[in-house]
Automatic annotation (TrEMBL):
Residues 13-202 form the NAD(P)-binding domain. It holds the Pfam family NAD_binding_10. Transmembrane segments: none annotated. It comes from Absidia glauca. SUPFAM superfamilies: NAD(P)-binding Rossmann-fold domains. It comes from the Eukaryota. This is NAD(P)-binding domain-containing protein. The lineage of its organism: Eukaryota, Fungi, Fungi incertae sedis, Mucoromycota, Mucoromycotina. PANTHER family: PRESTALK A DIFFERENTIATION PROTEIN A (PTHR43162:SF1), PTHR43162. InterPro entries: Ergot_Alk_Oxidoreductase, NAD(P)-bd_dom, NAD(P)-bd_dom_sf. The gene is ABSGL_00844.1 scaffold 958.
Length: 298
């Protein structure tokens, strides 16, 4: 594993699925890494067994309501990984963090955005928040002579957990697309690996590019067959109306604006070449992800 000991990376969003893998990958490369977390003790336990954590991982306690701890600890870092899950307040949060980071000397921000940022203006709740955040970070990068790399993943494989109830009670994968229409997805592991590569490559290589990350593109019948393999029973694909999909997701505790996006946004593009080019390997397939994450559905 190549070492990047001259780098110092600050990570926002370190304790979610993507953030954990980014942090562990940076540590494995012997990159000095600082993470901004609400609960330091829980985070210490989370990374207790991580390679090089004892020598290369620093914890800073703080939240978005008060960024004083971030402001006092960002100096000396040359890169920032930025993952904010608060979609509604995302543009302001990222703008505030970016302003502090660039002012402190950060040269590169790797921002986890969304493929939905490419959609028509104000047609998507998710897309509009990410678009505004991207625009603000890009302007900050220009003002400060820094760079911002935007990662734009499509639907996550993990989105299938939102309709787990349909697998259990209806023996079906439920969606509002025709059964033969291929829908785009991406592995969160692939997203994390791309982020790690960009954070450890020379900054000038990626400059201020945006990478659209679409991995596997799979139709409904094929998706259902994958879940049938792990559940050891016939699983069918059930096409429902967009309204029914929204209702199903809301009953599974998804916010209404998110459910509306999932039911109405066109996500039928073919896989992009970003993952194979950047990582030097094929993207992870939905089939392999389902097989290795059986416990999420059984």
């Amino acid at each position: 594993m190549p070492s990047s000991t001259s780098e110092k990376v600050y990570v926002i969003g370190a304790t979610g699925n993507i953030g954990i893998k980014v942090v562990n990958s940076l540590l494995a490369r012997e990159v000095s890494t600082t993470i901004y977390v609400r609960d330091v003790e829980k985070s210490r336990a989370l990374f207790a067994s991580s390679t090089n954590a004892s020598t290369h991982l620093t914890f800073v306690q703080g939240d978005y309501a008060d960024l004083s701890a971030f402001k006092s600890s960002i100096a000396g870092h040359n890169r920032l990984f930025l993952l904010v899950a608060d979609v509604e307040n995302m543009p302001t949060i990222k703008q505030d963090l970016g302003t502090i980071a660039y002012s402190a000397g950060v040269k590169q921000i790797v921002d986890l955005s969304s493929r939905f940022a490419l959609l028509d203006w104000r047609t998507s709740f998710i897309g509009e928040s990410h678009r505004l955040a991207e625009e603000r970070l890009y302007q900050l990068a220009l003002q400060h002579g820094g760079t911002v790399v935007s990662l734009r993943p499509s639907r996550f494989f993990t989105n299938h957990t939102w309709t787990k109830g349909a697998l259990t009670h209806l023996n079906a994968v439920v969606d509002c697309h025709p059964s033969d229409l291929k829908v785009e997805y991406i592995s969160i592991d692939d997203i994390a690996d791309v982020a790690t590569v960009v954070l450890t490559d020379p900054i000038e290589k990626h400059q201020s590019r945006a990478y659209t990350l679409i991995g596997d593109s799979v139709d409904g019948v094929t998706r259902a067959s994958y879940f049938g393999q792990i559940l050891n029973k016939p699983i069918v694909y059930k096409q429902v109306s967009p309204q029914e999909l929204v209702d199903t997701m809301v009953k599974s505790d998804s916010p209404w604006p998110l459910a509306y996006d999932m039911a109405t946004v066109d996500t039928t593009r073919a896989p992009t070449d970003a993952v194979p080019i950047l990582l030097g390997r094929p993207y992870e397939t939905l089939e392999s992800w389902v097989l290795k994450n059986k416990e999420l559905f059984v």
